[in-house]
Design goal:
This protein has 305 residues and is mostly helical. It has 2 domains: 10-75; 102-284, hpI Integrase, Chain A (Orthogonal Bundle), CATH 1.10.443. 58% of the residues lie in helices and 3% in strands. The protein has 14 helices and 2 strands, in the order H-H-H-H-H-H-H-E-E-H-H-H-H-H-H-H. It has helices spanning 10-29, 39-51, 56-75, 102-122, 125-144, 148-152, 158-161, 182-199, 221-234, 244-257, 262-269, 274-277, 285-295, 300-304, and strands at residues 165-169, 175-179. A two-stranded antiparallel sheet has the order 1-2. Strand 1 (165-169) and strand 2 form a beta hairpin. Helix 1 (10-29) crosses helix 3. The longest helix is centred in the middle third of the chain and has 21 residues, at 102-122. It is globular and about 65 Å long. The N and C termini lie far apart (64 Å).
């Protein structure tokens, strides 16, 4: 149902599967099972997660999987009740998304450009392709705010449709239009040209933009994250503070800092609910304060004049 009706990604399906397998194992230890679990069983499971050191956010994700599973059983008449309906969500502390300054992102981009420029004359064609690939992925990620799962699985055909935007299939198999900056377009075209030269007859316009010998056929999220941390170290930045998701946060935060509308950022990020996008509003505090100072008729700055 999740796959066919809701179109959730393979990563989400794998996560739900792990959560339900873990729950099933716990229920077996209590001589129970998924189809006959009681509310007390599920409460005991949540307590067990806490004892095992699971963070509140991880407990909340497990609870979400449980709720959707038992709602499904109830809707399909496989159970006459929903034992998860009265479970309370664990309290989660308000955490702001990790992000990067404009200067830090500029250091990363400069380092990636430097590597690609040096490789053009000093390294083999294979190493040159690697540096161009790193630059293309970084430029694309920062200029579009794609999820890393969306970025690594981009089909090469997206570059044939238009020169200034991407059509991205996100969560729930929903397509969205994402503008692509001139820098990202140039970096991607340079990489694609080298890719064609390297692959020759093996090049496939129906394949992935970032092909690899993985099970999926494209570079994995984990491999990209490692490449990004290596680049951060060479740029003199702490690798622990850099990840593809942090760059997605930087994309959204920097847009808002420079006057972008929250609804527009929601659309670019592919968030179904604007409440998800509102985690970034902390970056607006100074700008909103200045807006009130400048525009409100009773502001102190105007009365001083």
């Amino acid at each position: 149902m999740l796959s066919v009706e809701r179109g959730v990604s393979e990563n989400t399906l794998a996560g739900y599967r792990r959560d339900l397998v873990d729950l099933s194992g716990f229920l077996s230890s209590r001589s129970s099972a998924l189809l006959r679990a009681s509310n007390a069983d599920l409460r005991a499971y949540l307590q067990n997660l806490s004892k095992r050191g699971f963070a509140a956010s991880s407990q909340a994700r497990r609870l979400s999987a449980m709720r959707q599973f038992f709602q499904f059983l109830y809707a399909e008449n496989l159970r006459g009740d929903d034992p998860s309906s009265t479970l309370d969500s664990p309290r989660q502390p308000l955490t702001l998304p990790k992000t990067l300054s404009v200067e830090a992102v500029d250091h990363l981009l400069t380092q990636a450009e430097h590597q690609a420029a040096n490789a053009d004359s000093a390294l083999s064609q294979a190493k040159h392709l690697v540096t161009l690939r790193t630059l293309a992925r970084l430029e694309l990620l920062y200029s579009t705010g794609l999820r890393v799962s969306e970025l690594v699985a981009l089909p090469i055909a997206v570059l044939n449709r238009a020169q200034d935007h991407l059509i991205v299939t996100g969560k729930g198999n929903k397509d969205r239009l994402v503008p692509m900056s001139a820098r990202a377009r140039i970096a991607t075209q340079r990489y694609r040209k080298m890719l064609k030269q390297r692959r020759g007859d093996r090049h496939n316009d129906d394949g992935f933009l970032f092909p690899a010998s993985s099970v999926q056929g494209h570079i994995t999220r984990q491999a990209f994250a490692r490449d990004l941390k290596d680049l951060a170290m060479k740029a003199g930045l702490p690798p622990g503070a850099i990840s593809p998701h942090v760059l997605r946060h930087a994309f959204a935060s920097h847009l808002l800092q420079n006057g972008a509308d929250l609804r527009a950022v929601q659309q670019l990020l592919g968030h179904a609910d604007i409440a998800t996008t509102q985690i970034y509003t902390h970056v607006l505090e100074d700008r909103l304060r200045q807006l009130v100072e400048d525009a409100h008729p009773l502001s102190q700055s105007k009365s001083d004049k």
